[in-house]
Batch of 3 targets.
Target 1
Amino acid sequence: MSVPADNRIHPLIALRAVRGLLRDREDTRQAFLLVEALRGKTTLRQFARFCASESGRALLAEHPSLLAHLNDRESLAALPSGSLGRAYFEFVSAENLSAEGLVEASKIRATPPPAGDVTWFRERNREMHDLLHVVAGYGRDPLGEACVLAFTFAQNGSRGAAVIALVGAWRNLRRLRTLRVPRAIWEAYRQGRRALWLIGADWETLLAQPLDALRARFRVAAPVHYPQLRERSAAAAVAEDQMRLAAA
């Protein structure tokens, strides 16, 4: 299944992708299908805002590769402790992730999009996902993913991110059985609304900056509800995976 290369909403593709995510929360391909199916003109509106900002115009003039910076693990590991880049390196290393992995999972179109400013901008937004995990303070457990997608929706208006966050809210509420789950996700949305627009940030130069200073600069408040549930969410995910393997 792939998404046509146009700016229309594709509800049937989105519905199939939601069903896929309900079957397997780790199916990143279904998440990208859902985001693409519900994209519409959201990216074009965000791109116009990007072009209107001083930092956006400077980045467009240079077209830096955020992917290349995030894939340079040796340089990231050499950054000072407490910096954004070092924290990102420690995050992806602990979770066995890579920026290249997101690239592969995002290849859902029958033909690649044409090269150009908008494609570069979309790819840059894709590369930001794990950086937002680090900056906003959310782990890779199921609740952390739902929270960071609620934060993302508040930042970029992605309908797909909103739907995935809602699916995550429902799944986590069933698993953890506490009203702190929707509170945590709502808090993440409000956190994203209060923060400055991170999509326009010059991430390449920010990687060497202290993470705490960046959070203060971009008005990213620390979450309160999520940290109280993080260990419980991770343990429930492990138990769920073990049950799935035993039933296979």
Note: The chain has a mean pLDDT of 90.
Target 2
Amino acid sequence: MPVGDEALRFAERLLALLDAAHYTATHKFATLLALIDVAAERTGPDRSVPDTLSATEVGRRVIELY
């Protein structure tokens, strides 16, 4: 199984877990969603995942989610 598929499956399970749980720290949830979104956008056509993510890009995504 390609690494990209494993990462996507992990993200889906994590989101399902968070959705089922009662959480009050929405900034943490927004940060997690932003990390997943940016990582997914930076995944290459060959399903290679990025080694690093830009904090600025993740921060912008968090603000968009709010």
Note: Helices lie at 3-20, 26-41, 55-65.
Target 3
Amino acid sequence: MKQIYLAIFLAFVLVHCKKEDAPKKDAEGYLQTVQSTLKDSLSSADFASLEFNKAELSAVDSIDLFLLRIPVKGKTMRTDFVLVKTIKTGKILNGKFINMQGGAVDYREGDFIVKKWDGSISIYSLNRKVVLHSPIRQGYITAFHEKEIKLSTESLALVAPDNYLPEVIVVGYIKTGGISYKDYMALQNLTSDFTGGSYQGYYLTMDGSYGSGGSSPYYYDPYGTYNYTGGGGASCGVYTNPPILIDFEWQDQRAAIDLQRFINCFNAIPDAGATCSIEIFADIPVDNDPMKIFDLGTTSPGHTFLQIKKSNGGQSVLQNIGFYPQSGVKAMITNAPIASKFVDNSGHEYNASFKMKLSPENLKSTLTEILYLRNMKYDIDNYNCTDWALDVFNKTRTEKISIPLYDIPGNVPSVGTRTPQGLYNKLGEMKSNQSS
């Protein structure tokens, strides 16, 4: 239920099963098909300049999106590469040479300094004809947005409608010694001759990082390194760079998942020899103040959700799931129980987490508990996302996780509520005590 400036979402949508299974023969066939086509499409010099052994595949099976980036010898993937869009077998649909110049620049937004990407991009067809030369300002490829984006005459900064996202973004996360920054780029639009307009695309990391030190208003975790969640895995045998989906939408507005299909994904993997785990995540509404119940700017109470995984040999299923009201607005204006739903929380931001191994038998008990609770009403003070996640997580745990209770404003008389803040602080205490 968290909306931040740029929430980062891993691209693989986990509504249905994700199985990580890439036969070697498929990998060889995929690469051979790509190489064969490019050899016929490129000049001899261009073909010889490509490093196929360092190619990175980004695949989103649910929408049949396969993007392969191939670096140029003597260059970095961050500045020069061939990008081809393929089908699963490696047949190329289209491709381009991409040259990028630029990097992260500091911009002031109110009291905060944020990093945005400025530079330029050149796009060429595979036979080296110019498709596009364009500046990139604050992450936007300006040629893609000539009709939609205006430049402020005072600051020369891009002013974009809310439904537009930049093609290149800079994301920061806390590490020991300071903040590291990496940039990400949306690739779908680059394979076409020219596409612009509103979209919410899949972003891939670019090589390189920027500096350290200072502070970030968006990514703060006093208990450890800031991370992101989601699914992914090997595909077609080449190095896989999981896409990241940048999205302004609230996750509580997502459609409800089918719980039975959710369960069936795990049942499809044999129990004998399987490894299983469950992880609980706390996302507090104000990243640098875990004692605040709401973010008054977004009216967000934070969120608690689960990640469940089962692996056996070459097969693996990983799902993220959270408990929500059917209408977030209703939950904020009433303390009465209202209809609930379960949502795919892949890519949801979090500030602290705790992982526990499960036996296949315990996994079955956990999944049964999820089905048992499927008809629970959502009640922000008596049965919310944190109540549900803890009930499921504690189902097979001997030493139950018990968290501090905090008062919800307007709940009179108050007996205290389990909240993401309480879980966050409990996990910090457990980490300090080295609890397991």
Note: The first strand starts at residue 8 and ends at 10.
